[in-house]
Amino acid sequence: MFGLNSKPLNNDVASIVKDAQALLQSAKLLTGDKAEEVRNQGLLMLDNVLIQARDVQENAMDKGKAIVCSAGECVKKNPWRSVALAAGTGLLVGVILGRK
Question: What is the count of structural domains for the chain?
């Protein structure tokens, strides 16, 4: 809606999780150095998912703050327009709910 698209991230996370699951399934049969290597790869994949999730969270927080600030600035610059818009919206919702 505001330039935040989570579809690619969801696909990336799902892909990494599936890869990690497959890696851990194959690791059941491994021992020694090979098992350690596979375990380290799995942990690296999970670290990457956490980093991506943290980046998305920070991005969403920044965009949310920017939206709130721009809305606040708009209200400060146009107080009467904001009041009229709020009243009009309230009237419209009241009419729609009153018809039911």
Answer: 1
